[in-house]
Amino acid sequence: MDTIDVLVIGSGIAGLSAALSATENGAESVVILEADTEIGGSSRLSGGIIMGADFKLQREAGIEDSAESFYRDYMNANVWNLNPAAVKAFCRESGRAIDWLVDHGVQFHPALVFGGSENTPRCVAAVGQGGQLVNSLARAVREAGVDIVVNHRVERILVEDGRAAGVVADGEEIRAAAVVIASGGYGADRRLLAEHNPSFTATGDWGWYIGTGTARGDAFGFAEQLGAQIVGHDRGLRLLHPDFVHTFESYIPGWMVLVNKEGRRFVDESAPYGVLERTTHRNGGVAWFVFDHQAVDRSTAGRTKAYKQVFPEREERQSPNWNPAMIAEQVEAGRIHSAGTLAGLAEAAGLPADRLQATIESYNDDRPDEMGKDAQFVRPVAEGPFYAAEVRLATLCWTAVGPAITGRGEITDTLGRPIPGAYACGEVTGGILGDVYVGSGNSVGNSATFGRIAGRSAAQDVSATHSA
Ligand SMILES: Cc1cc2nc3c(=O)[nH]c(=O)nc-3n(C[C@H](O)[C@H](O)[C@H](O)COP(=O)(O)OP(=O)(O)OC[C@H]3O[C@@H](n4cnc5c(N)ncnc54)[C@H](O)[C@@H]3O)c2cc1C
C-alpha cells in the first residue's frame, strides 16, 4: 500500500473532525481505522451537547461572548491547573468548530443552553443527540473521499527516526506521513483506571464507566512507543450515583436534600453536576440523599419542575432512579433506608441523629435557603416515612489522562517538544479537561475543536514536507 497522507485512529467526533479537516487542508489521502464494528465510539452514545464561544447560533440568540472570556472562565474554574496553550486554542476555535459542524450538515436545536455555572450560555444540543452528530459528520467525511475502515484495531505506531511513520493494525503495516490519535478514553480497562484514576476506583464495586467498550486505553501504548508525555492524573468526570442499576443520570432532582456523613448539607442540590462532583469530592466522595414520601409522589411531575438544567428532547424524561417504582424496589432491597421518624432514619443510615434533625429543620424553615438553592426547588421534608440512600461519585463519564498536545494538536515528548508526524485530539488527550468540568458539552466541544485543529495541522505539515 502507498504511504497515506493522514491516518486517523478512531471514528468518534474527534477522529471524524480530524479526517474531514485534513482533506479540507490539502491532504490527498486520508483513512480512518476504527476498532469497533460500527463508527462513533462514545460520541455516538453522547447527549450531543457541545460547548463553545462566539458562534453563529449564539450570536443569533443575541448573546455576546468571546474566546477571551471563555478562556478566562475556563482557566479560573480550574485554578489554571491545565495546559494553557491547548486550552487557549480550544477556546479560540470552539465557536468556529460549531459553525463548521453546521456547515457540514450537523443539526442543532437553536436554543442556547447553560452547560454548567457559566455567566452566559455557551452550549447547543444536537437534534437527535450523539447519533445524529456522528451520522451527519460521517456523511460529510465519506463525501470528502475519506475511507473509514471498521473492525481494524490499531496495535501499535510505527516510529522511524523519531517520527510517526504509520501504524500496525491486524498485523499489517500501514505507512502514513502523519498519524492522528483519536482513540478516545480508557474507562473500559479496570487496570488503567486503578493506575490513573484512584479517586474513582476508591468507590469500589459501585464504580462504572458509561462510555464505549472499546475505550481500552490503547493510546498509552502508542504514547510509550512515541516517547510522549502523559498528563492529567486522576481526572475524569464522576457523577453521584446510588448502587441500584447502571443507568446514566447526569442531574439529580432539585428537591433532593444531600448530606455528608456528618448529616450536614454542603451544596445547593440543583447545582450543575460538575459542582456536585467537586463539593462531594471535598466531603470524602460519599453522601446521602434524604427525602420524604411527598417527594416520591412529586417525582412523577415533569422534569421542568424539578431541574434547573433542562435540555431539548429531555423535557419529559423521568428520573431513572428517583421515581416511585424504583424507590419501592430499592426500599425492599434495603438499598434505601426508610423510617417513620428522622431519628429512626438517621440510625438506620448510620448518620448522627441530632445533626440530621437540625439540618432538616433548618431546610424546612421559611428563610432563604442556606445553600442558596432557588425557592422553587425547596420542598419541606416533613412527613414520614422518610428515606435515605447512600450515593457515591460512581459514574465515570469520560477519562482525561493522556498524551500532552500543543495548541496545534501535536503530541509532545517528555521535554515538551512536538514529535514529528504525531497528533492527538479528543478524550484521548490530557491537559485540556480539568479537575472542574466546565459544563455539559465540554468534552464533545474539545473533541470536535481539536479534531479540526489536529487534522489541519497534520495536512499542513505533510504538504510542507512534500514541497520541501
Ligand atoms: C452516555 C454519554 C453521554 C455523554 N454526553 C456528552 C455530552 O452531551 N456532551 C459532551 O461534551 N460530552 C458527553 N459525553 C462525553 C463525550 O461523548 C466523549 O468524551 C467524546 O465524545 C469523546 O470523543 P472522542 O472522539 O475523543 O472519542 P470516542 O467517541 O470514544 O471515539 C474513539 C473511537 O476510537 C476507537 N478506538 C479505540 N481504540 C482504537 C484502536 N486501537 N484502533 C482503532 N480505533 C480505536 C473507539 O472504538 C472509538 O470509536 C458523553 C458520554 C457518554 C458515554
Automatic annotation (TrEMBL):
Name the record gives this protein: FAD-dependent oxidoreductase
Pfam families: FAD_binding_2
Gene3D superfamilies hit by this protein: FAD/NAD(P)-binding domain, Succinate dehydrogenase/fumarate reductase flavoprotein, catalytic domain
Residues covered by the FAD-dependent oxidoreductase 2 FAD-binding domain: 5-444
Domain of life: Bacteria
Protein keywords: FAD, Flavoprotein, Oxidoreductase
Cofactor: FAD
Regions annotated as coiled coil: none
Native organism: Actinomadura rugatobispora
SUPFAM superfamilies for the chain: FAD/NAD(P)-binding domain, Succinate dehydrogenase/fumarate reductase flavoprotein, catalytic domain
Upper classification of the organism: Bacteria, Bacillati, Actinomycetota, Actinomycetes, Streptosporangiales
